[in-house]
Structure formats: C-alpha cells, structure tokens
C-alpha cells in the first residue's frame, strides 16, 4: 500500500502516453484517407497488403522508434545523434530526424486543408444541409466547397489556428482529459455508422469489396500505396513516435503497447471502411471518387437517417478532434526543433512553424481549384505533397530506422529495451533485420522499374 501514490503516477503517465500515441495515429488517415485509397485501388487487394504491411513492417518500426526514443531521451535529431555517437556509428543517422521534421511540415500543410473540410462539414451538418440530398446533391455540396478558394482558406486557417494555439500554449492537459472521452466516443459513433450501413446499405457488397481481394488489382503501385499508408496511419517515419518514446518509463512493455496502438488504429480504419462502402454501393456512387469519398457518402447517410443532423454534427466534431490531435503531433516536433536550434521562444517558434505550414497549405488548397492545371512532376501540388511524403520520405526514414536498430545496435541492448523472451525476440529480430527492410526495399525497387 505504501507505494500507492507512485503506482498511480505511473498508471496515469502510461495512460497519457497511450492517449498521445493513439491521438497521433488515429486521425484523418483512418477515416478519410484509408477508405478513399481503398476505393481508388480497387478494394480488398489493397486492404490485404495494408494489413500485412501494418503487421510486418509498421509494428516492428513503431517498436524501433519507441525503443530509440526511450534510449535517447531527447528529440529525434538529438536522440539519433546521441545513440549513433555512443555506438560510434556515422553521424549521417541524424538524417532520420531531419527527414522526419521535413516530412511533418509537408504533411501538416495538406492535412490542415482536409481538417478544414471536416470543420466546414460540421457547419453543413449542423445547419441541416444534408437533409434530403441525393448522390448528386452531396456531390454538388462538396464541389462547391472545393471550388471556392475563399472558403477553403477560411477553414484551413481556422484549423491551423486551433493547432498552433495548443502547441504554443502547451495546454495539453485539458486535451488529454478530453481525449479520454472523445476518442472512445468517435469509436462508438463509427460503430453506429457501421450499424446503419449494415441495416440500410449494401452491407454484403461493402464487406466483399473490403475483404475479398481481387488479385488482378494488385499492382506495384497499389502495394506502394498500401505500404506508404501503413507509415502514414501509424505516424511512422517522422520522428514523432521517437519523440514520444522518450517519455516512456522503463517498465512499460513496448511490444504489448505497440500492438495495442496498432490494433486500435487498424480497427478504426476498417470500421470507417465498413461504414462507408455499403453506402457507396447502395447509392450507386463511385468507390474511386478520390479524396472526396467520405464527404460525399456519409452526408448521404446522415441526410436520410433519423437524428441525422445530430449524429452528423457529432461525427464531424469528433473527426475534427481526431484530426486535431494528429495535427498537434505533426507541429510539435517542428516547434521543438526550432525552439532548440534558434533563439526563438516557444510561442514565436509555434507561430513561425505554423505560418510556414499555413502558407504551404494555401498552395495545396489552390491546387484543388485555381491552380489545378499547374503541375510539378505531373502532379498538382496537393497530390505531390502526399506522394512525396507517404510514398517516398516516410518509407525511407522508416527503413533507415529499422536498419539502424536491426543491424547497427547491439543485440543485447535491443533485447533489454524490448524485454522479450527467447522465441519472441528471435522472431522480432528476424523481422527487423530481414522481413521489414526487405519488404520496404522490394516495393520501392519494383516501383522504380515499372
Ligand atoms: N497518423 C495520422 C492519421 O492517420 O491521420 C496522420 C499523421 C500524424 C501522420 C502524425 C504522421 C504523423 F507524424
């Protein structure tokens, strides 16, 4: 009994850690990006590769980032500097941290634009704009938003302000408390939506689409998309999880905790798919509609169910919340780094990083309308930002991370950090040294030549 206060402190910090990790990983990637990528890639084959990548590549890399963070006890750049220095390895490993910060900046710029869409949809839903809409109506509502640079700018700015405010003010205590209620609420609401899809949509067709892989659809590009998304959805390859690892206490079992986060993240994504595709098929919509998919299918459901105004509004509020906690985790490492490397204080660093992201976001949102024909490497800016980060930068930094842990760190040190027994550790090490790096490499090389 005497150690009760101590164990309570440990318990609450462990919960705080889980909330931060889940808050970062569960976001627009699960509810917005996963369904539309599945639809663009033709369904089950993408889902299967995604699940394999999550398990064989994502999980060991998540564990690697956490163990590096716990060992280094610093921000990602200093952590890599410190560990590589101690092990007498090249200082070039620091590039993992640098690449991560750059990727975080690029991702947040377009992430905030989509966060803005979700904000706009709170308003549409609360003002009953979905009521009575058919497939064409929801399409028109969405295209109206997309075609208006002014509206997009307004909502993108608001989302960015929300994000900067938390990172600048450090009022994360309240955010943590809110997360404890709002994240489970989001999960419950998603289940309600799955229930709705099961009773009124083409549920079987939806499930079939998600879970019966058509291997003729499995191209190198689909595999790359699925692998890139595994990194994106788990917030890997950005140093974010490494930064969080520095707050992990020694008695936390990294493997078990990582598995919990991975399962939660995956279940939420699959639930989003199960809520959306039955509605797509029941209403003759196009599963390959692209980034607008959830903004066109869910309103159709909300517009036709009883209590849809309330449900819809609540859903988009929770979606914004999930996006917000992820966005905060994207801005945080940039601000931390600025604060350390420049004379700026936290508030100014948050403003500088936030405004730099906001400006890049404006280029991204203009590429959805006025600048649609302006392309770089054959892609509009929005698509380019997504492509370069998810399909190139994250897998590369992730690959470097796991190669470092698998090949350049001592076996015993890694084993002590992971606290795993014989067989489990042997398996883990095998996947860290061979399966994960070779998997990433194959997908990369294949795409280079096709
Ligand atoms: N994992 C988040 C999502 O799925 O929405 C997005 C994200 C957050 C990606 C943080 C990367 C990151 F570092």
Give a concise summary.
GO terms for molecular function: symporter activity. The chain is mainly alpha-helical and 450 residues long. It has helices at 4-25, 28-41, 44-72, 76-86, 95-126, 135-146, 149-169, 172-200, 203-211, 220-233, 240-245, 254-282, 293-304, 308-341, 346-366, 381-408, 411-418, 422-448.
The secondary-structure class comes to: mainly alpha
Q: Count every beta strand, where a strand is a DSSP E run of 2 or more residues.
A: 0
CATH architecture group name = Orthogonal Bundle
What sort of overall outline do the alpha carbons produce when their principal axes are compared?
Answer: globular
Largest sheet: none
**Could you name the ranges where pLDDT drops below 50 across 5 or more consecutive residues?**
1-8
Name of the CATH class: Mainly Alpha
Order of helices and strands: HHHHHHHHHHHHHHHHHH
Number of structural domains: 1
Average pLDDT metric: 91
Count of alpha and pi helical runs: 18
The percent range for helix content is over 70%
CATH topology: Hydantoin permease
Membrane topology: Multi-pass membrane protein
Subcellular location: Membrane
Transmembrane segments: 12-32, 44-71, 92-114, 153-175, 182-203, 223-245, 257-281, 309-335, 347-368, 388-409, 430-449
Protein name: Transporter
């Amino acid at each position: 009994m005497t150690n009760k206060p101590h164990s309570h402190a440990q318990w609450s910090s462990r919960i705080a850690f889980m909330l931060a990790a889940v808050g970062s990983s569960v976001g627009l990637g699960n509810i917005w990006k996963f369904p539309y990528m599945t639809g663009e890639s033709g369904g089950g084959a993408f889902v299967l590769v995604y699940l394999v990548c999550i398990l064989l590549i994502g999980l060991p890399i998540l564990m690697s980032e956490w163990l590096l963070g716990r060992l280094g006890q610093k921000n990602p750049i200093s952590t890599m500097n410190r560990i590589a220095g101690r092990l007498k390895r090249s200082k070039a490993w620091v590039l993992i941290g640098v690449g991560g910060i750059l990727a975080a900046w690029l991702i947040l710029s377009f992430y905030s634009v989509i966060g803005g869409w979700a904000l706009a949809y709170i308003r549409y839903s609360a003002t009953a704009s979905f009521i009575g809409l058919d497939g064409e109506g929801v399409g028109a509502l969405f295209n109206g938003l997309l075609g208006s640079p002014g509206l997009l700018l307004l909502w993108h700015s608001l989302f960015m302000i929300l994000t900067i405010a938390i990172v600048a003010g450090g009022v994360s205590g309240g955010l943590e408390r809110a997360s404890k209620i709002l994240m489970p609420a989001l999960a419950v609401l998603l289940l309600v939506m799955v229930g709705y899809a099961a009773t009124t949509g083409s549920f079987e067709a939806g499930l079939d689409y998600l879970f019966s892989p058509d291997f003729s659809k499995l191209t190198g590009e689909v595999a790359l998309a699925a692998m890139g998304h595994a990194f994106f959805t788990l917030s890997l390859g950005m140093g974010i999880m490494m930064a969080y690892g520095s707050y992990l206490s020694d008695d936390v079992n990294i493997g078990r905790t990582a598995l919990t986060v991975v399962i939660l993240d995956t279940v939420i994504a699959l639930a989003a798919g199960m809520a959306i595709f039955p509605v797509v098929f029941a209403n003759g919509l196009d599963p390959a509609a692209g980034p607008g998919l959830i903004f066109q299918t869910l309103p159709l459901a909300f517009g036709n169910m009883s209590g849809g105004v309330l449900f819809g509004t609540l859903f988009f509020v929770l979606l914004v919340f999930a996006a917000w906690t992820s966005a905060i985790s994207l801005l945080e490492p940039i601000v931390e780094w600025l604060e350390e490397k420049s004379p700026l204080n936290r508030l100014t660093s948050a403003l500088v990083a936030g405004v730099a992201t906001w400006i890049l976001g404006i280029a991204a949102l203009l590429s959805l309308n006025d600048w649609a024909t302006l392309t770089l490497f054959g892609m509009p800016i929005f698509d380019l930002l997504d492509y370069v980060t998810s399909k190139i930068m994250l897998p590369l930094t992730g690959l470097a991370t796991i190669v470092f842990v698998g090949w350049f760190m001592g076996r015993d040190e890694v084993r002590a950090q992971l606290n795993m027994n014989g067989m489990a550790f042997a398996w883990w090490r095998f996947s860290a040294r061979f399966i994960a790096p070779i998997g990433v490499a194959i997908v990369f090389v294949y795409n280079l030549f096709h």
